[in-house]
Amino acid sequence: MNNNFNIDIYLDGPQIDELNQSNDENISGYTFNPSLFRSNQAENYIEHSKMILSKIQAKPVSLEVIADDFEEMISQAIKLDSLADNVYVKIPITNTKAEYTLPVLKELAKRDIKMNITAIFTLEQVVSIIEEIKNTSSIISIFSGRLFDIGIDAVPITKEISKFVHSSSKCKTLWASTRMVYDIFNAQKSECDIITMPLSFVKKIALFEKSPEKYSLETVKMFYDDAVNANYSI
Fold first, then answer.
1. Fewer Cβ in 10 A, N or C end of the chain?
2. Alpha-carbon span 141 to 115, nearest angstrom
3. Topology classification of domain 8-207
4. CA–CA separation, 216 and 213 (whole Å)
């Protein structure tokens, strides 16, 4: 797979055995969250993080705190940061009480801990925190796919946020919650620096080289072969 899209591709939540399949120069980083850890059947959060980091040593890896209290978020962020130099600590924009995590971001910025601020849905959320992180190399993760989920066109909103972030700070923007392979084009239109994609989507980028006619014929053959191999009759 050749990455000619002028955007960094981060692999989203690969399982441990998939990390060996993703050793590709076109993959620029990796992102994880507690839900992905759970779906990957991780039993111990820190040990699973260490296992991931033992296999990824030269590219950014985003690992998320699992606390809801600000002081505990800071404590967990320090622990995650200490695991490896390539860790970006993911901090949600708010806790579960809808309280902005600004005190956490301020403290971590003071400690020069690399951050990925996650679950961003609106420009207002970014405006509320930008002053504290504008001189950091933080990643702003915009959940563009989830905006589509609730019936909102994510492209203009994501682009508006990207323009604001790039004009106001040293931070980068990331298109998150990718829903289809075509989102790599949406992310480019939105002027994002990064898109995060599951391995299955990354593999499908190779399909962009096919013509519609060729892909149509392959689809017809697949349906026919499946019917034959299943010994179906009508």
1. C
2. 10
3. TIM Barrel (3.20.20)
4. 5
CA 43 to chain centre: 22
Are residues 52 and 76 in contact, defined by beta-carbon separation less than 8 angstroms?
A: no
Q: Find the length of the chain.
A: 234
What digits encode the pLDDT tens for the residues 102-114? 999 999 999 999 9
Which helix or strand (DSSP H or E) is residue 194 part of?
Answer: strand 194-197
| 9-33 pLDDT, tens digit each | 999 999 888 887 666 778 999 999 9
Whether the model pTM is above 0.90:
yes
**Measured between alpha carbons, how far is residue 221 from residues 110, 207, 224 in Å?**
59, 16, 5
Give the Å distances, CA to CA, from 112 to 54, 134, 202: 23, 13, 32
As given in the structure block, the two tokens for residue 22 are 């993703």
